[in-house]
């Protein structure tokens, strides 16, 4: 499955979301009251249309949530691909660009990213589809860390678990971050990039192996 | 405010939860259908009591969620206190025991820990109370990292952000972990302890000063 060519002139730029009135209002409603706390009637009222008009566009409430989740993860994957591509052949740059894309997304798009917690309310089939798409991000991260380890710039024993921890850490940002709060997306990104480099045991230049310390930088 | 003396013979042991029939069923129902997706009627049916009988024990559905959240975070705080206390005067041991307590809790008590995502559905007053209790965990973590930095065993620039990242990473475990899955709580704990030590820039023994490290005392 060949990914579509990245459609971002600049993967660091987050234009206002323009999902259309139904999805925009659904994002807001699910964020405020949760998926189960939002009825199709509530949604129609927010959008200012009738319930049948809503059903004309979306099969049901779950289809609206699935569209939101799917749009968000595909957008993030394309950004991540663009970010990694921009890193050229530098394994550290590729990795930090990847982390940057994820954290910028968790901050600029916090409400969409937080929607991930509603995933458990969708059908097993839809959950599997979403998981399969999202898996691509995990595979990209595994590749990037693997590559850094092979080239001697990262030192990490347990790549799979470190990647999961890293992605979990970035995802949890959406739970507390608010645009307009004390930190800007760029500030959060700068800090998490440093932490991500620690997690993968970044060393500025390859060292001779050393048995003593589990973490060694410089 | 003096914390109560830890009531755990062994903070690493997680007995089956015995919250009583209403809270046990509420935990299950909120996990399956979310807070808003669970009606008081659903809950009464699961427990096998009438709706008025349920209201006899709990003011409303929110009070049930708040009790669950509060019980979980207080139990975790007591475990963390016991864990840190057991570390004696060794700053690394105190820190790793703390991380161990958190990760054991995120795994053994994954459904309770995951309930945290329902927090946005409780009233501002209840949310503030919960946040104030939970803040104690963050303050403990800040103290532990601070102490390690002062004693020259940890090296980290941005203690506040690293602690938040660390706690976010541990919390996100509850989103994927299942008892009986491929990893045991002890395995996850061992791996996350290593990752946590990386985040705080653990070094096995104080090194001679070097211009490159961001924080250095001793």
Number of helices of chain A: 10
Compute the separation of the termini of chain A in Å.
39 Å
- Biggest interface, CB < 8 A: A-B, 40 and 41 residues
Report the count of strand segments of chain A.
0
Percentage of helical residues of chain A?
Answer: 55-70%
The average pLDDT of chain A is 88
| CATH third-tier fold name of the largest domain in chain A | Tetracycline Repressor, domain 2
Q: CATH class of the largest domain in chain A, please?
A: Mainly Alpha
Main structural class of chain A: mainly alpha
| Chain oligomer state | homodimer
Give me the Rg of chain A, rounded: 19 Å
Secondary-structure element string of chain A:
HHHHHHHHHH
C-alpha geometry of chain A: elongated
CATH second-level architecture of the largest domain in chain A: Orthogonal Bundle
DSSP strand content of chain A: under 5%
Biggest sheet descriptor of chain A: none
What's the number of domains of chain A?
2
Which residues of chain A sit in consecutive blocks of at least 5 with pLDDT less than 50? 206-218
Q: Looking at this structure, what is the CATH superfamily of the largest domain in chain A?
A: Tetracycline Repressor, domain 2
Organism (chains A, B): Rhodococcus aetherivorans
Domain HTH tetR-type (chains A, B): 16-76
Keywords (chains A, B): DNA-binding
DNA-binding region (chains A, B): 39-58
């Amino acid at each position: 499955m060949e990914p579509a060519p990245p459609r971002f002139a600049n993967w660091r730029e987050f234009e206002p979301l323009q999902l259309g009135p139904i999805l925009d209002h659904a994002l807001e409603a699910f964020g405020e009251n949760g998926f189960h706390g939002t009825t199709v009637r509530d949604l129609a009222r927010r959008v200012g249309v009738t319930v049948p008009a809503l059903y004309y566009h979306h099969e049901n409430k779950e289809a609206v949530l699935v569209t939101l989740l799917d749009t968000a993860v595909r957008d993030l994957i394309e950004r991540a691909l663009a970010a990694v591509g921009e890193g050229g052949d530098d394994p550290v740059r590729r990795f930090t660009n990847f982390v940057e894309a994820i954290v910028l997304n968790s901050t600029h798009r916090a409400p969409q990213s937080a929607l991930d917690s509603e995933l458990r309310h969708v059908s097993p089939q839809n959950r599997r589809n979403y998981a399969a798409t999202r898996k691509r991000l995990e595979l990209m991260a595994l590749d990037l860390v693997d590559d850094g380890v092979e080239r001697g710039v990262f030192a990490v024993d347990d790549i799979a678990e470190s990647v999961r921890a890293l992605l979990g850490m970035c995802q949890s940002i959406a739970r507390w971050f608010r645009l307009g709060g004390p930190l800007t997306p760029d500030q959060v990104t700068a800090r998490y990039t440093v932490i991500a480099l620690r997690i993968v045991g970044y060393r500025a230049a390859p060292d001779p192996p050393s048995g003593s310390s589990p973490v060694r930088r410089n």
